[in-house]
Fold each of these.
Amino acid sequence: MFVAPKIHSYADARAMARKNLPWMVFDYIDGAAGEGHGEAMNLSALRDIRLQPRVLVNVTKRDLGVTIFNHQAKIPFGISPMGMCNLSRPGADLMLARMAARNNVPVGVSTVASTSLEAMIEAAEGHAWFQLYFSGDGAGTTRLVERAKAAGYRTLIMTLDVPEVGRRPRELRRGFKMPFRIGPKQFVDFALHPKWSLSSLLHGKPVLANFTTPEFEFDRTESRAAADWTFLERLREQWDGNLVVKGITSVKDALRLKSAGVDAIQVSTHGGRQLDAAPPPILALRDIRQAVGDSFPLFYDTGLRSGEDVVKAYAMGADFVFFGRAMQFAMAAGGEACLTQYCSLITEDISLTLAQLGNTDMTGLSQSLVL
Ligand SMILES: Cc1cc2nc3c(=O)[nH]c(=O)nc-3n(C[C@H](O)[C@H](O)[C@H](O)COP(=O)(O)O)c2cc1C
């Protein structure tokens, strides 16, 4: 019988994932752009945020629910879109979808997901947001938007920080490709991780599930560089649901996006995977919040590892936040049981942090808590 290991922190999940996954898969998930300075700088900026504890406030009853797009989420964090999640464990996408359904929170469904966008929204019981990449001349992108609409999606995340895929040396060293190919190097890697290899073999090699018919094709290396403001205007006209733009760190861009009629901005540096020299997004979040005003919806992802990190991001101006890698490591560590454990530990950590700060819910978190 399978007994899920116990995880008490991000470091536990990452260490177990490192043991279980082939090097190529671990480096794909864990890797960052360039030398990883941008990722490290943001992690250290997050760590350096100090929150002021307060005393003698009755914090017996604490509520972690928040409202996003008029929708009541039970917990204040969701899952950021990630491509090829089933590499971390067969069925990983659906585990994330079920977690989203249980907690009424969004799961981001990547253009390059390993489960089809239709299967994901069904498993998530509607709690799925479709993430769009612009590609080539944009014709395929337009078709995907229509497909997402037909599948019942009401929120689109347009990822804008990938005009070209970032240079990630750890992926390049391992020969990571999407869809992946098995050469001699990968063969040795897989042979040394037989548990992963056998279960992946049994469940079938992960594929780009939204592109299994000739009508929909995707080439990861095809340039996405042609997306411009005119494209965003057209997208805004085409999509009457919620439009979230992801990958923003510039105040100037944020102000222009707000004027262009997007419904929310997701401040992010793609987990440090795109531009090594990008500014720490957690600091950009504070500046963007100041510029766009209190009521404009701002989301955040990148570098979140714990419940305290979630509270810090809310204090810096986020209305909702998303986890990336951490969720994949939890599943690689011990499947759905570990994913559930990890989500519970973050939730509990958020609740304990609120108590220390003298807060009873997420709405009272603001810059005034940050030292
Ligand atoms: C393995 C992996 C694949 C990703 N794929 C996508 C993707 O397809 N689309 C997208 O918008 N973001 C993608 N991202 C970025 C995440 O949505 C998110 O911005 C990032 O993981 C957050 O940082 P964190 O991993 O430090 O939490 C990916 C991230 C990882 C780790």
Note: The chain is about 45% helix and 10% strand.
Amino acid sequence: MSMRAKAKPEAEAVTAEMTGAEVLIHSLKKENVEVLFGYPGGAVLPIYDALYRSPIKHILSKHEQGSIHAAEGYARVSGKPGVVIATSGPGATNLVTGITDAMMDSLPLVIFTGQVASTVIGTDAFQEADIMGITAPITKHNYQVRDVQDLPRIIKEAFHIATTGRPGPVLVDIPKDVANKTISPDYDSTIHLPGYQPTFSPNILQIKKLADAVGQAKKPVILAGAGILHANAGKELLTFTEKHKIPVVNTLLGLGSYPGQHPLFLGMGGMHGTYTANMALYECDLLISIGARFDDRLTGNLAHFAKNAVVAHIDVDPAEIGKNVPTQIPIVSDAREALRKLVDVDSETPDTEDWRNQLTENSKNYPLWKKTNTDEFLPQQVVELVHEYTKGDAIITTDVGQHQMWAAQYYAFTDANRWVTSGGLGTMGFGFPAAVGAQLAFPDQTVVALTGDGGFQMTLQELSTLQELNLPVKVVIMNNHTLGMVRQWQEAFYEERYSHSLLPVQPDFVKLGEAYGIKSYKVETQEEARVVFEEAFSHRDPVLIDCRVSGKENVYPMIAPGKGLHQMIGVKP
Ligand SMILES: Cc1ncc(C[n+]2csc(CCOP(=O)(O)OP(=O)(O)O)c2C)c(N)n1
């Protein structure tokens, strides 16, 4: 018997009577969902049966964590919500890391989980997990559908909540009997959320207050976070900064929101940021944070952070303002709206010439550095080679660790939405499946998954998804035979006691890739890497490249835990 899906009559037409599962699929079409990331199981069988007759593309990952990270990658680069479906119990709990990751990094996801039948909820039924309780603190909102008539409205609300204000994950839990029940759906029900009215436009008096502060500043700096990307405000940020000649620092997640080569750009701030960026944050007299949340990895010790500055904070989420850093000029607003108003408002342009000269001196005297007097294949060189062979025009996803920081430091992002990384949660295993999702969003783009040998092994089962879909993702493993970032901290703070951070025994990544039918290579020198990269980036097939890099490199400069931004170490070789 053929294993191919049998063609069945279309179930999309709105009939008077539909099952809950069919209502769900129909609602997804109404929300213009083009791709679903998921994995089937008992409680979602009715939904998968409705999907069987639907033209919506479904990507079968090999583990639900793969589904949700792929949905995050898709959402990050496309700006559209990533949609995930998983079964009850273990299917749902396998999503938890990804949901938390999306919550921390403000990614719009709508997640559908199957649930045991309403009649047995609370009885420890087979594959029952209290996913409502589990996900309450890690979702922007969650729903359990008790009455199938509510389904069209709940789905509308879920998409609305996930994508408006500060984006985030919304979960909809659907008991199996609800999915099976037949109704005449009402798609016209309107969204009624009196408790959820995100502010979009800024208070104009606050904008004037900030404009006045800009006019008086001698040492202003802007901290631009991912909120700029979510609000599609890159152009407005450029206009505002060029108008007033204000230097810009990016957060890790904000990279790409400002052109990496621009003379006003100081680089990334924070633990592994540039000296120039960190000293600008330390010494400034006006700090304008836009769509950034003052993460502790960015601020270092708060007692020393922007001590002499008037702080203005523009954020769509009022809960962020004043959370970590006392703020004199709070502005609750969409970033683009606020920047447009700031550009329009009558204001003086500050004289920042001395300040900019001082920062330029810093950049000249304290650039990022790596070893030069060595024949070793350095991890930083891998990032530089990827930049060279992709002409700086790729979507780069990373895992978490040293390679992530080197990617952030050395890939000089010039465009928005090309940088996909796990910032807030720091989730190893994120990067490779996120690349699968990003490639699905932009099939013609070059997508590179830069991963560590540790993180890659957490979700490498998605090689099978790559094989099945023949997606041209280039997997570049920066293989230092260690859990590099852990090793670095053990070297610096634990007297070189490398407790369980060395990985001398590893699988043969080339054979592993080949087992999934993927062209795979091992490179041990820069020269070998050049030959392989040349070939790998010349075609549209998936590739895996095991780059054997030095295992002794550390990420510098660095701010040790507890220290201030002005106390960076490793600023010079
Ligand atoms: C799921 C998860 N577990 C543990 C950690 C802690 N951690 C942070 S970086 C790191 C090492 C990563 O090693 P690797 O993937 O090889 O990358 P490298 O640092 O060598 O570039 C670890 C274990 C984490 N961030 N995520």
Note: Confidence is low (pLDDT under 50) at residues 1-5, 7-12.
